[in-house]
Amino acid sequence: MPDGAPAGEVVLEARGITKRFPGVLALDGVDLDVRAGEVQAILGQNGAGKTTLMNILFGLVHPDEGQLVLHGRPVVFRSPHDALAAGIGMVHQTRRLVAAHTVVENVILGHPRARGVLDLRQARRELEAYCARYGLAIDLGAKVWQLSEGEKQWVEILKALYGGARILILDEPTSALTPPEVKALLDVLRAMVAQQGLTVLLVTHKLPIVMAISHRVTVLRAGRVVARLPTAAATEAMLVQHMIGQEVAVPAADAPAAAGPPVLDVDHLAAYNDKNLWALRGVSFALHAGEILGVAGVTGNGQEELAQVLAGLRPAASGTVRLQGRDITAASPLERWRLGIGYIPAERTTVASIATFSLVENTAMNFHFDPAYVRRGLFDYAGLEALTARILATYRVQAPGPRVQAQHLSGGNLQKLILGRVLARAPRVLIAHLPTQGLDVEAAAFVRRKLLEARAGGAAVLLISEDLDEILSLCDRVAAMYEGRFVAILPREAASAEAVGAMMAGVRPEAVGLL
Amino acid sequence: MRVGRHVLVLERRPTRPAAHAVVTAVLAIALALAGSSVLFLSSEAGVFAAYRAIFGYAFVNPRGFVATVHRAIYLLLCTVAFVVPLRAGLWNIGLPGQVYAGALAAFAVPFALGAEAPPSVSSALVVALMAAAAAAAGAAVGGTVGLLRARFQVNEILVTMMLNSILFWLVANFIKEGGPFMSATAEGESFTLPVALRALLVLDVPLTAAVALAAAVLLDLFFARTAAGYRVRAFGENPAAARYAGVYPVRLTVLVFVVGGALAGLAGYHYFGAVPGLYKIPGNYGFYGDLAFYGIICALIARGSSLGAVPIALLFAGLSLGARFAQGALRLPFGVDYAMLGLLMMTFVGSHVLYHYRVAWRPAPLPVAPAPSPRWP
To answer: B370: pLDDT confidence band, cut at 50, 70 and 90?
Structure first.
């Protein structure tokens, strides 16, 4: 853990920042001070206002009230351009790079030196020297599409620093990184802060990251600052308490359920991915009523394609899928909804919801074919609105009301709505793909509890997740996917973290003596 | 713009009440009319006389007003023909081709039955058949586009534009001298419909008006209240989400183009087969095809609302006729009608900015302090 806050002067201040979005008070009189050469973590749950606050500091969003003070002088950032000119850079949660260009070209894009004639060679020399100094191994001549997520993030950080940023805002920088990449990121950031006097504002809801690198931590909850303390004086438990205002019990499955009858039979299922390469190479399993079967695996081993084939959104190249004995391999998504297969896709905002539609209309995505809500082709909007209001209440979705547009909901609240909507159909089979990805502690625990409730209610649940702890705590049986196949399916008792970890790397557990 | 310690800024409106849409539309019309005054400055008649002539002919003169209504019905049918695919996120840009197909099919009915209405068949039945044939032909052309789009991902804008050309020359082939539909006088236009086959007129307005108005009212209701309309909107907003929700993309794409094409076909029947004074495919049928593009403009200005497009269609129809009349009556410069419509289009597009944004005085930002020079590398 780093030592206490360095006694740098205050370089950037936010005073009494308030920001309202339609129906939502995103920030309510927030004060923040940032000192030179410190790493300050901004901690909070989804929807706490972290990203809004950072967007205000970066000039992307304008506060309704309050003031920014830079080096003791009030400033107004009309756009990110002003913020960059003032030495503030931001790396967003989603990448904003030109995939077809090289690293150097991306870094220099928008740089004052990139006007007129480009001197890519000089830029490259400077960047090389910089990377060498901090031990960054990035091929500067590589095209961005060839890079891993972690490398892309470095390109964005380099871009901000090369553009003259002295204060660097990182929004959830570790969300797409593998553990070794996270460690490398923290190491290099530490070196930059120590040697170069860089100031970092780190937005996250991951406590280990906060504890590992920050000097001070500011906790936001529901648009207010609820705590600010030196990291050295904080414990993880204390921070969780501040973040959520109460203790969260980690849900876990009780004793393995007595296996019900098989509901879904998958036999030698094969399918192509979007590039017409084999993604599924013969997956077979039976999913029983009242159980959760976990599918662990590293991204890109066929999990997404498996979920899509089971939901009817991707054709099976061969093999069969049977629902209670009935062959549904070629059934359309609509038929599958009608037959009681519920699907929660990983893509919350692009597939599972329609941003410009109201919450009522989003609920209708799973009910537009249901005779209970459609009579003679006409929607029963009153009934749908009542249903939506019930979901909002039961699933504790924080939203101004059923008629607000889905785009005004934070990720966690949107996921709760989607989950509530799918479970309101009481599906016999539930396919949940990364259902807690990107959710804060409380929302993730809530989603997990609901999955366990569905299991208790007799649903057959297929949980595809990359969070090993989640899989081990919720599932009755655990499969690991590697290169389009299930390596093995282990009962809960045999599924240790080591065994499943080995399976995720393609090693059969008995081969390394773990079974 | 900066005045003292305040600055004029353009900022996104947090909410957009419905009344606001009307206010910005009215503002756009006023601005276009003010702008087009420039066109009349050179004329001897004076600006106000020019406006009096335009609006007087279009909306007061009994003959002029009837012509305005005929044209407005045509524009409205073209508007709804564009709106239906638009709500599914698809662009029926080349709808004039469907209009031509409708006109050809309508005239094929009396042609097939013998140009003079045979006494054995009721003339009302033949008129109904003509309208049905026009709708079916438009639907067939539209359906082809939809199928190509849905099955092979062929861009619908390109296909409809190319079909425009094909159908334009097909019409020419049918009505030219020696073509099957050629007129008795061989003037490069089609035969004239016999009196018995002219659509029933109520107050000089053919029954196609009822179809256009019913479509305008029902379409808004269809999209707002029905499950099928919901599916079309969902597909238009986010095709991937609609597929997830169980919408059949191919079926839906073909369907919206079939309906859009049928309405465009009816527009063709309306202008060439039901409007008094024409009752034939004239040699300058391409002018009416071009006019169909104003239906697209109406749909876009009304932001996809078919009912909202009614007053806009009426205005465009009136101005295009009134300006043409004033051009002759007051010896205004050639092309003022197009210039006025063009201006109107531009101010309407500009009004979208005012609809989404507002102009406000805000405290001026203080100059940004220069950053301490970065230690780089």
So the answer is: very low
Output the DSSP codes for A463-511.
EE-S-HHHHHHH-SEEEEEETTEEEEEEEGGG--HHHHHHHHTT--GGG
Query: CB-based contacts of A294: which residues, under 8 Å, 6+ apart?
Result: A463, A464, A465, A470, A471, A472, A474, A475, A477, A478, A479
* Residue B257 CA: distances (Å) to CA of A147, B92, B142, B150, B160: 42, 8, 5, 11, 11
Partners of A282 in the β-ladder: none
Both structure tokens of B143: 């359906």
Under an 8 A CB cutoff, do A166 and B371 touch? yes
Specify whether B225 is located in the same domain as B344. Answer: no
Tell me if B89 sits within 8 A of B157, measured CB to CB: no
**Dihedral angle sign, alpha carbons of residues A302, A307, A308, A309:** positive
Q: pLDDT tens digit string along A72-99?
A: 888 888 888 888 888 899 988 777 888 8
Strand (E) or helix (H) holding A462: strand A460-464
Mean pLDDT of chain A: 86
Distance from CA of B223 to the nearest CA of A (A): 10
Q: CATH number for the domain including B277?
A: 1.10.3470
CA distance, residue A368 to nearest chain B CA (Å): 6
Q: Are residues B80 and B228 in the same domain?
A: yes
Instruction: Round to whole Å and give the CA distance between B283 and A227.
Output: 80
**Alpha-carbon span B147 to B154, nearest angstrom:** 9
Q: How far apart are CA B169 and CA B190, in angstroms?
A: 14
Characterize B249-268 residue by residue with b for buried, 16 or more Cβ atoms within 10 angstroms of its Cβ, and e for exposed.
Answer: beebbbbbbbbbbbbbbbbb
Q: How many domains does chain A have?
A: 1
pLDDT at residue number B206: 83
The per-residue pLDDT for range A92-105, each reduced to its tens digit, is: 877 788 888 888 88
Q: What average pLDDT does range A202-219 have in this prediction?
A: 87
- pTM for the structure as a whole: 0.75
B245 has a chain A CB within 8 A of its CB: yes
Length of chain B: 377
Q: Is B122 on the interface with A (CB under 8 A)?
A: no
Q: What is the pLDDT of residue B373?
A: 42
Which residues, listed in sequence order, are joined to residue A73 by a DSSP beta bridge? A70
Mean pLDDT of A165-194: 83
CA–CA separation, B281 and A491 (whole Å):
78
Q: For position B372, what pLDDT does the model report?
A: 46
| Domain's final residue, options B288, B317, B346 | B317
Structural domain total, chain B: 2
Helix (H, G, I), strand (E, B) or coil at B253: helix
Residues with Cβ within 8 Å of B135's Cβ and at least 6 positions away in sequence, in order, are B102, B262, B263, B265, B266, B269
Judging contacts by C-beta atoms under 8 Å, the chain B residues touching residue A196 are: 375
Residue B326 belongs to a domain: no
Q: Is there a domain that residue B70 lies in?
A: yes
Contact B250/A at CB under 8 A: no
Cα separation, A18 vs B74, in Å, equals 52
Which residue range(s) make up the domain with B252?
A: 64-317
CB A54 within 8 A of CB A169: yes
Q: For residue A396, is it within any domain?
A: no
| Cα A237 from Cα A224, distance rounded (Å) | 20
